[in-house]
Structures are given as C-alpha cells and as structure tokens.
Amino acid sequence: MTRLIIFDLDGTLLDTREDIANACNYALKMCGCPERRLEEYNMLVGRGIYNLFRGAMPEDRRSEEMVMKMKSHFVPYYNEHIDDCTRPYPGIIGMLDALAAKGIRFAVASNKYQEGTEALVRKYFGKYDFVRILGQRDGKPIKPDPAIVHEAMSGIEGIKAEEVVYCGDSDVDMQTGINAGVRTVGVAWGFRTREELSAYDPWLLVEKAEEITDALMRD
Hints:
Blueprint: E1 4-7, E2 14-15, H1 17-30, H2 41-44, H3 49-56, H4 64-80, E3 87-88, H5 92-101, E4 105-113, H6 114-125, E5 130-136, H7 147-153, E6 164-168, H8 171-180, E7 183-187, H9 194-198, E8 204-206, H10 209-218
Parallel strand pairs: 1-4, 1-6, 4-5, 6-7, 7-8
Antiparallel strand pairs: 2-3
Helix pairs in contact: 1-4, 3-4, 5-10
C-alpha cells in the first residue's frame, strides 16, 4: 500500500518551461550570450540551475564565474516572473484531491532551487499538507542522488521503501527512484519523451494524471 508519493515539480506537477526559458534567456542576454529557443529548454532543465546555466551558455564562455553571473541575473528575474505562464498540468489538482482523500501523503523533491520550489508549491498547491518540500540547496546533492528521496521519506515516521512512489518526467527522475529503491512513475506529459522514460522500466508510465489515481486507488 502506498503511503507517500514524492513528486518532481518542473514538468511533472507544473508546466514551468516558458517561465524558466524567459528567465534564462534574460540572464543569457545580460551576460552577452545568445538566447536559446524555447524547445531547447526541454533538455536543459531538470539538473539544477547551475547545470541549466552551463548547458545554456556557449561552450567557449563556460566558467564558474559565468555560472554565478548568470545566477545573479536569473534568480531575481525568475522570482519576479515565476508564475507568468506556469500552470498545473491537466488533471493534477483532481489527482491530488483524490489521493489526499485516500490518506496518501505528498512530498516534493526537485532540482529547482529551494526558494523557487517553495514559492510554486505554496502558490499552486497550498491547500495540501506536504510532508517535505525539497529543492536544490547548496551543499546538498542533487538528483539522481537518492538523498533527497530519503529526506522526503523522513517526514513520515517508520515508512518503508515499498510504501513510497517517486513520480517524475525525466531520466534523472527515473534514476533517482531506482537509486532510492522505491517504485517510479514516469509522466509522459512533461519535458521529456515517453521513450526516455520507458528505458528505465518504471513501475507505471502514464499519459494522464488520472492513471496515477486509478493505479494508487487499487494499490
């Protein structure tokens, strides 16, 4: 029986691509770098903002100094425009309502920086009682390291790995669940492809949020 479902955020619960792209393109422009097309961000997001910056800037400009300069422009801009275009994916609210009514608890484990993760979860999902809201924090390993899943699990005393599901939209998420020893759910509505997810043989691979509800209601 599932007691806890841990969600990735970007590309899983929320369609954040356009706001992330706009903020990163602003930072690129401020750093004198060419902007990226919206479609390119499907592959750039998901590994934390530092890797986002490294991937977005031209190879010959990459340095830790440039990464920090990008961050100095990106974070204030994104904080100001964090929800201009961002919305929950279809069916997400209904799924959360149904699972909460069944007594399943929720957590978020994201590679988005902590401040942004907390702001978006509170704005769009504030009515739910998340046991942990975890993002990227300096000094903490990022996914696919399983530490963030174990930290989320610590919000429920005595929980076992077999009572946990990890849900995400990318290869990083599938690897994270596998590394943590929990069941994985791949969502095909996010930033990556169904083929990328299926390569990791997830416990469940879904096209609609209702499929998660149906599976966990029978669990």
